[in-house]
Design goal:
This protein is mainly beta. The chain contains one helix and nine strands, in the order αβββββββββ. The termini are far apart. This is YlmC/YmxH family sporulation protein. Pfam families: PRC (PF05239). InterPro entries: PRC-brl_dom, PRC_barrel-like_sf, Spore_YlmC/YmxH.
Amino acid sequence: MRVSELKKKEIININDCRRLGFAGDIEFDLKTGCVLALIVSGPGCFCGFLGHDREYVIPYKDICQVGEDIILVDVKRKDVEEKCKV
């Protein structure tokens, strides 16, 4: 599977069945080439305009299944690291 294919898949949290968004970026270990985390853009700043003000970093261990259209993850909402992009 290519990175471009992963970025087209929607991320769904199986704990609360919420859509987290789409995989915007992927964090790799440069030495091993393994995926460390998926980075998902959060909600938009102003009704979806002007970009995104947060991002969710989902560790690889929390990915349950990668399907054709979606990626299922098992994360507690408060445990997902939120970073401001300021």
